[in-house]
Amino acid sequence: xxxxxxxxxxxxxxxxxxxxxxxxxxxxxxxxxxxxxxxxxxxxxxxxxxxxxxxxxxxxxxxxxxxxxxxxxxxxxxxxxxxxxxxxxxxxxxxxxxxxxxxxxxxxxxxxxxxxxxxxxxxxxxxxxxxxxxxxxxxxxxxxxxxxxxxxxxxxxxxxxxxxxxxxxxxxxxxxxxxxxxxxxxxxxxxxxxxxxxxxxxxxxxxxxxxxxxxxxxxxxxxxxxxxxxxxxxxxxxxxxxxxxxxxxxxxxxxxxxxxxxxxxxxxxxxxxxxxxxxxxxxxxxxxxxxxxxxxxxxxxxxxxxxxxxxxxxxxxxxxxxxxxxxxxxxxxxxxxxxxxxxxxxxxxxxxxxxxxxxxxxxxxxxxxxxxxxxxxxxxxxxxxxxxxxxxxxxxxxxxxxxxxxxxxxxxxxxxxxxxxxxxxxxxxxxxxxxxxxxxxxxxxxxxxxxxxxxxxxxxxxxxxxxxxxxxxxxxxxxxxxxxxxxxxxxxxxxxxxxxxxxxxxxxxxxxxxxxxxxxxxxxxxxxxxxxxxxxxxxxxxxxxxxxxxxxxxxxxxxxxxxxxxxxxxxxxxxxxxxxxxxxxxxxxxxxxxxxxxxxxxxxxxxxxxxxxxxxxxxxxxxxxxxxxxxxxxxxxxxxxxxxxxxxxxxxxxxxxxxxxxxxxxxxxxxxxxxxxxxxxxxxxxxxxxxxxxxxxxxxxxxxxxxxxxxxxxxxxxxxxxxxxxxxxxxxxxxxxxxxxxxxxxxxxxxxxxxxxxxxxxxxxxxxxxxxxxxxxxxxxxxxxxxxxxxxxxxxxxxxxxxxx
Length: 805
Known about the structure:
The protein is 71% helix and 2% strand. It is an all-alpha fold. The longest helix is centred in the middle third of the chain and has 39 residues, at 331-369. The chain starts with a helix and ends with a helix.
């Protein structure tokens, strides 16, 4: 195991000991102080690789997992995975530090909180450094499960359980679609390695599975990154504690889909389908999220929709940048579009800083005032000046104003959509002008909701006397993490080229290695003259201020849309009708009668197996190699039929048991005729023991009652009986007449040499199928223990009942 693997597994290993730490030390020390060690260690470990990755180096290491299927745990650390790893570990450390002061060590189940958080952290780290498709998928699903547990942390609340279920259903649905896409991709590329697929991308772009795989993979990315229409889970996930919201929904989980799209861009980029799916959904999500954020009255809901909006912005940039891989572009034009990828990575980093800070500040406001409702807040600027300053920094950065890092990446976003509007491929010469228009309108709403967040909360009439709590600034422990993030927001504005050199350019080179030279000399600056992008920004500020001041005048437009047909309501209705349909189907087949269950089972066998035999020409009869049927064979078969009929019509249990035993003994005679004395001996022993046991048990049961009733002929039962018999017979004869593979019997014939056993049956059971036999014995042992336990319980219960009487 390498250091890379150890760092990924460190959160999982530490999660195992968190409950013991909590039990032993929580009364004196907050569990978070011990957990903080994990992300700090990972962050410092990754920091050492920044200069090396900036020089163009990459680091790979492999631990074999399932080599027979080419599935190994291969880590791949390049510029893109390094950026994500630093965000996961760095913001994870700040979130844990914040949670130490936010969550009470006496009232909260901290062991659950930190176990779930560490599971999520480890899963995200494994996801962003995995080179193997299926290892990546395993970590992907662990993020879904751990995020479900984190969102439902306050599981006693209905809304928490609802939000967790919603997030789980949507993201797991996307994950299953992604798995199908990964399987298709591995079939096309004949490899499970992302790097190897990228190296041979020219071999798969004309494959018939290329478009279906693309759609399925994008479904996974869109559900995880809350793209429209799958974004409905994110606002409900805000029922989780604020540290969880700050971590999952600003810096990590929602960025998993962004990472997947960025990583797969070299494979699918340059195609019209990829461009329109990613750009179209991204821009619509940007507009949808920003428009809906304005009407929210809950601060966390506002931030949730703002996150949806910002994720749409990043996704659209990745889509625009993918056009640089179009095969007929010149180097200069490709480099022009490729800067959108650079902008996407830059805004991803910026979003993590200002959105993480804002979530923490909103948590502070809720912690100190007891509410997040904007209608109950106002005039907090004098009571909470530090929180106000941090909100201004984060809010203005999100609005795209200087001197904050969001301004730089937002200007680059405007540049990207303006460049995209001039593309001559993908039919953009007709509708390309709508890209900057949509981006500009969405940015106006972004500006408006940022002003609402800042000024509706801290300016205006002081409503503190109406609240139940005495309001004051948060303790320094709660402020440390948002202050650090707020400082980074300003610092990145003044030293963007340092960030670019060591983080952004290496990450860009990981996505578009063939165009890495196009950004080598790129400098990020706050002013590029009075160009189109600057005038768009000025327009956003002017129109945004007007709309904010006139908010009461036009706010009523939100009431025009019928709330009964929102996406969330449609989701709720789909769940309701799914449950009704499931109940209807269950009531249909769960009748409580064994005969009905057998009808369904045998009917299914007839339809599936019989239908497959007919559709795929599986009926084959070849009896040329069969042994001749002797007089003894016919006699034994007739005797077996007589024994079977005796069981059906016997009026005594003893007679039925004897008839069943006789049937087993007759089967053993067949083994003798087939020259298999070992099997015959085994069958005789088993039948003797079971018959004796049955006789001992059933001897003590009462006699069968004589019931006179007319047996009605049931056509369905007759058809199914004949059908199952016919299907089984045809399958047996077809299997005997079809030899697709060489028989394995010759391998077992050499059992003495392979296993040192002279009895081939014993060799198969004990040596070749040793584990299977052991598990069968284990099943019987468990069943025996269950019977013994039930008998003991019954005896104890009987004694108590006797005492009661």
